[in-house]
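Tutorial sheet, problem 5. The four components below are modelled jointly, 404 residues in total.
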Amino acid sequence: MGKGARTRATILQAAVETACLAGFEGLNLQPLADKVGMTKSGLYAHFGSKEALQVATLEYAAELFQTRIVAPAKTEPAGLPRLERVFERWLDWPQNAGLPGNCPFFAGVVEFDDGQGPVRERLVRLFRDFRAVIEQLVASATRHGHLAAGTDPAQFAHELLALRYAHHWAHHFMRDPLALARTRTAFAKLVGATAPRAAQRA
Amino acid sequence: MGKGARTRATILQAAVETACLAGFEGLNLQPLADKVGMTKSGLYAHFGSKEALQVATLEYAAELFQTRIVAPAKTEPAGLPRLERVFERWLDWPQNAGLPGNCPFFAGVVEFDDGQGPVRERLVRLFRDFRAVIEQLVASATRHGHLAAGTDPAQFAHELLALRYAHHWAHHFMRDPLALARTRTAFAKLVGATAPRAAQRA
DNA sequence: TGCCTTTCCGACCGGTCGTGCTAATATCCG
DNA sequence: CGGATATTAGCACGACCGGTCGGAAAGGCA
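Model answer (structure tokens):
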């Protein structure tokens, strides 16, 4: 790995930490350069525009999410256990990936819900991919008989994301100590409501 | 109403529209002054600080939400119908209040989830008050026999907010045409899961 | 070693930010 | 009408923003 790639990695690590704390609009060049011990222009040369820096940071955050949150769940048995593991790690994923602050993707949703541009498009695609992962896990859990046959993976994913959002609101914003308990209760309800008859009797 | 109060109202109307489009950090003085046909300093004199402007805008948005979203539901019969009406109007409330863009409170959640300050505190209190309204509606619906006895209002409110959040994500950010249908399906599931036995058999 | 390329710094640009003043103007009351 | 007061304009400040440029320094390869 050449020198350029090494400092670029250093920058992106600092950038994703900043994004967790201040969002993608908060990825200002000067403070970021100070954080990695560089000049603003030196940092800028690696990306060419702030937008490119945002996209690169987004990409790097997605890699972190994949390797630190989704991939580790593959040690769990296929089906519902794997889905549960992903959800649990997802709830406080920045922390599980060694990052400070909150989920940068949620910040991006608010920052880029209007208008358009490459950052928004990339973020939409990331969410789409992740939703597809969830839907596959749901379909797998259904095939394993952990969820009722006929469960709609898309609907399930929609409601799962709802729970993750509400958790962010209750835990990080409202700072409600009961947030985690409420979220887990809701998750159990969601799974239980779509559980097959046999599992409900158990 | 004196001249001052009149222009102040004009400013706040423009401010809440801006907040729907750009959040509370996006409440910049110069563009806002241009929008109402004033000078930046002339506008500034009404509030004394940007933070005070943000708080005032928040307060005004809360009034709008109360009068345009919550209050109209009181024409519905008490209990579940009233709750359903609030939820429906809540889903696209800026539009129902004649505002452009998206829910400014959700933008505020992301902008003020870290740190502290008067704006954040005010927003937390607004959410707490609204959650209390939801809980009262749930309790009322339970008393009317529309929801199962023993329904936890706090848990119900948590899950209802989850649905509202997911709707924002799917509808405004992902721009998924199926968003509204998924949200309504989830709402029906939420109500149905806590419906009393008699209603379930019907 | 010598040389070319990558990498980085430092100074600087035009703009915009929030925030203070002063001065002029409009409004309201007696 | 006149004078006190509330309101707004004009102007400037320091700080920060993203972005540009030339040249110095270091890396990498022959």
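Marking note: Residues 198-202 of chain B have pLDDT under 50 and may be disordered. Full credit if you identified this.
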